[in-house]
Amino acid sequence: MKTLLKLAPVAALIAAPSLGLAQEADVTPPNSEIGFIFTTFMFLVAGFLVFWMAAGFAMLEAGLVRSKNVTMQLTKNISLFSLAAIFYYLIGYNLMYPGDGWSVDGILGAFAFAALEPVGLAGAEPDLTYASVGSDFFFQLMFCATTASIVSGTLAERIKLWPFLIFVIVLTALIYPIQASWKWGGGFLDGMGFLDFAGSTVVHSVGGWAALAGALILGPRIGKYNKDGKTVPIPGSNLPLATLGTFILWLGWFGFNGGSQLYMDTAGNVADISRIFSNTNTAAAGGAIAALILSQVMYKKPDLTMVLNGALAGLVSITAEPLTPSLGAATLIGAVGGAIVVFAVPFLDKLKIDDVVGAIPVHLFAGIWGTIAVVLTNGDASIGTQLYSILVVGIFTFVVSGVVWFILKSTMGIRVGEEEEINGLDMAELGMEAYPEFSKG
User: Fold this and answer.
1) Model confidence pLDDT, tens digit, residues 41-87
2) Which CATH class is domain 36-430?
3) Please, are residues 59 and 245 in contact by the beta-carbon 8 Å criterion?
C-alpha cells in the first residue's frame, strides 16, 4: 500500500502530461535565426580562444627573457591588450570596416566610434545574414591585440615602458586597422584578389615589420654581440613557462584560424571549420619537427627554443590559407615555416638585429612564406597579387612604424640607461621583481 501511494503522483503526471507541457511556449528559434545564433556563438568562442593567446604571448616572453625583466614583460602584455581594446573601439574598428565610409578610393576609411546594436535592450532587429556586431567586434579586436603582442617580445629587456605603450596606441588605432581594411574591409587589395584567410600578412607580418623597425632603431641589448661580432647567447629564465606559452598559443590558434571561416550557419561551413582545425594543428606539428631535426643537424643537439618557435612558425605559415591544403600539404607548409626559423635566427644575429624571442623570424619571415604558399593549394590565388600585397603592407607598416619609433626616440627616448638595463627593467622601471626570493638572472 505504501508503494502505491508513492507511485500515485508519478502516475498522475503520466496520465495528464498536458497540464504542464501544453501550456509552455515554444522556445525553438525560427529557422531564419539559427544561422545567426550559431555564427555569433562561433565568433564568441573563437574570440575567447584568441584572447587566450594573450596569455600565451605573456608566458612565452616571460620564459624567454632573463628573470630581472620578467615583470616588465608581463606588465607590457596586459597593458598592450587593454590599450588595444580601448583604441580599437575608439578609432580602429571603423577604420578597418568603413562600409560605405571609404574616403580615398578604398585606401582610408572613416574615423568613428564602434557601435553595437541594442538588440535585447531596445528590441532592435539584428542583421540575421551574419553575426551580431558585438561578437564580430570582439573577435576582430583579438586579432588587433595579437599584432601588438608580437612587437613586445622582440624589443624586450631594453625598451622603456611608456614609449612602447604609446607605440601600441598608434599601432592598434591606426597602423593595423588601415592596412587590414585594404583586405578585410573591402579595400583595394581585396579588390585585386589578394588572399589572406586569417592574417599571415594582415596580422603576423605587420607585427613583424613593426618589431623590425623598432629593433633597428632601438639597437641590441648590451652584451649580445661582442667586439669580434660574435653572438653571445643570453638564455631565458624559464623554459617550462616558455613551453606552456607555446602550447597556449597553439590552442588559441584554433580560434584564430577556425573563426576566420566567418560563418557557422551550414553543414558545409562546419565541415570547413573542422578541416581548418586539423590543418592548423598539423602545420604546427610540421614546424616543430622540422626545427627539431634541423637544430640537431646544425647544432649537434636539439634546441628547445627553436622547436617552440618552429611550432609557432608553422602556425603562422598556415594562417594565410588553412582550408584548401590537404593534411599532407599543410604539414609541409608548416615544416617550411619551422625551417625558416632555424635559418633566420642566426641570419638576424649576423646583421646584429637583436630579437629576444624570435618574433621576426616567426611572424614576419614565416608570414611572408605563408602568404606566398597560398598559391600552392588555392587555384584562385595569383603569385603576382600575393607578392604585391606583401610589399604594399610591408612598406606601409615598416615606414610608418619607423617614423613613429624615431619620433619617440627623439622626443622622450625609447631605451633605458645602461645601468638600468644591466640591473634589469623590473627594478629600474617598475620597482618590483617577478622572483624576489631568487638571485637575479
Assistant:
1) 999 999 999 999 999 999 999 999 999 999 999 999 999 999 999 99
2) mainly alpha
3) yes
